[in-house]
Input
Amino acid sequence: MEIIRTAEAPDHSGPVPQAVVAGGWIHVSALFGAVPETRAIPDDVRAEAEQLFDNLGAILAAAGAGLTDVVRVGIVMRDLYRDRPVFNEVWVSRFGDHRPARSAIESPAFGRPREGARFMVEVAAFRG
Output
């Protein structure tokens, strides 16, 4: 197993890697739309979603992959009905015609306290 790390995406505060690679599969750990340099979550929902995809792209690139290698995305949203339409617009703009499998759930309890993240994703990609 290879641990992936890049300064182009925020680190986790605990013993959690940004991603790992095993057998050609890339598993991205819980990822947020935080700005890497400051760890701040953007105030605007679209800016947060865009930052999340910037972070995902950076981690995948560090693993030798890209968004077209993504196979599945699990999404947690703090307010699914309010924020999903904007998230979907950013999703389509970033993935284009590529359509990985996906699930989305709503939960008020994720991320760091007082951070206010609207989204968290876990991603599986294959660079076979």
Remarks:
- Residues 2-126 form a domain with the 60s Ribosomal Protein L30; Chain: A; fold (CATH 3.30.1330.40).
- Helices lie at 45-62, 80-95.
- The beta strands are 2-4, 19-22, 25-31, 70-77, 101-106, 119-126.
- The chain is about 25% helix and 30% strand.
